[in-house]
């Protein structure tokens, strides 16, 4: 049997609500009708055909637009969308450990996608206590920022430390069983968070800073520390995250550009600490990913069963 796949970062609800895409369509049908200049890479059927068993599905709102009321409303609307898919039998939301274990038993028979909910950016939480109602509806992962600094911590585009509210939020996460996603966090804040937080840690979508020198990616000592914590890094097959010289409009990079990041990350985390976090379609499309990767089933060429899914599953089983 083919190994199952896990994708640790997909902005599915955002694609529906912000880009107006119908992700229940076969990928080729969506491509034929989508007006957006970035060719879509993902729909629910394209995940099914690839054998993706689990996806970390985001609740995402851009902190550069709107304000706290609008963000809260949008987060709950995206959550409701995932619940509607679940109601229609299109996905299973994995809220508790028993959901995960039952899903992994059922998946080989029915191929239904399991979703683990990730709030991408704590700016959408008015206070640390506002994590509770989301956890009650199934949220299991949180990143403290998205690019800009949040009231909780500095971000990759706006450096800063962990704040008092950030420390409180980490305590709340630990009590509720919500894992920490280091993606988008400022390095200074990431080190303090790693030191204080006793729960499960990962980076759902980031690459090696040694190869793409921007604060969006993880420096080698952080990769090492993440590995020592038993964490997993989800690598992003997005050309601008693979080669600092790549710009929109250039031709697609060869697969080797991705494999370089994989080898580098594996040297610091160990091969058991690296997997996929594609971030498809989080603001780019087919034109911006390496040649040969046109849909999820093509990702199978990138690594063994550990890399494709088992590393994430082992991590999930360890704390979920
Ligand atoms: Zn995202």
Question: Describe it for me?
Answer:
The chain is α/β, with parallel strands linked by helices and 320 residues long. The chain has one domain: TIM Barrel (Alpha-Beta Barrel), CATH 3.20.20. The protein contains 12 helices and 11 strands. The strands form 3 sheets. Strands 1, 2, 3, 4, 5, 8 and 9 form a 7-stranded parallel sheet that branches. It has a two-stranded antiparallel sheet with strand order 6-7. Strand 3 (91-93), helix 5 (97-110) and strand 4 form a beta-alpha-beta unit. The longest helix is centred in the N-terminal third of the chain and has 20 residues, at 68-87. The model has no long low-confidence stretch (mean pLDDT 97). The structure holds zinc ion. Zinc ion is lined by residues 9, 11, 58, 60, 120, 279, 282.
Annotate the secondary structure layout.
Layout: E1 5-10, H1 12-17, H2 27-33, H3 44-50, E2 52-60, H4 68-87, E3 91-93, H5 97-110, E4 113-120, H6 131-136, E5 139-143, E6 153-155, E7 158-162, H7 164-176, E8 179-181, H8 187-196, E9 201-202, H9 220-228, E10 233-235, H10 239-242, H11 256-269, E11 274-276, H12 305-319
């Amino acid at each position: 049997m083919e190994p199952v796949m896990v994708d640790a970062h997909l902005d599915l609800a955002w694609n529906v609500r912000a880009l107006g895409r119908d992700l229940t369509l076969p990928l080729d049908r969506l491509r034929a009708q989508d007006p957006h200049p970035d060719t879509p890479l993902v729909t629910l059927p394209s995940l099914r055909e690839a054998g993706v068993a689990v996806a970390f599905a985001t609740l995402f709102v851009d902190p550069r637009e709107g304000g706290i009321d609008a963000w809260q409303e949008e987060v709950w609307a995206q959550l409701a969308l995932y619940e509607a898919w679940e109601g229609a039998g299109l996905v299973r939301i994995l809220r508790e450990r028993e959901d995960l274990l039952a899903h992994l038993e059922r998946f080989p028979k029915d191929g239904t996608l399991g979703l683990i909910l990730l709030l991408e950016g704590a700016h959408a939480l008015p206070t640390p206590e506002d994590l509770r109602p989301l956890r009650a509806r199934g949220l299991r992962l949180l990143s403290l920022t998205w690019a800009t600094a949040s009231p909780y911590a500095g971000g990759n585009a706006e450096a800063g430390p962990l704040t008092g509210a950030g420390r409180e939020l980490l305590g709340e996460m630990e009590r509720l069983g919500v894992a920490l996603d280091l993606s988008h966090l400022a390095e200074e804040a990431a080190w303090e968070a790693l030191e204080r937080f006793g729960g499960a840690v990962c980076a759902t979508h980031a690459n090696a800073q040694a190869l793409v020198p921007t604060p969006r990616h993880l420096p080698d000592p952080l990769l090492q520390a993440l590995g020592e914590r038993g964490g997993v890094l989800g690598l992003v097959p997005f050309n601008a995250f693979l080669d600092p010289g790549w710009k929109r409009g250039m031709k697609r990079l060869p697969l080797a550009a991705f494999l370089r990041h994989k080898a580098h990350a594996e040297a610091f985390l160990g091969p058991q600490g690296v997997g996929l976090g594609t971030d498809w379609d989080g603001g780019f499309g087919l034109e911006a990913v390496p040649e040969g990767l046109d849909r999820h089933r093509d990702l199978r060429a990138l690594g063994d069963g550990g890399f494709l899914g088992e590393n994430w599953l082992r991590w999930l089983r360890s704390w979920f």
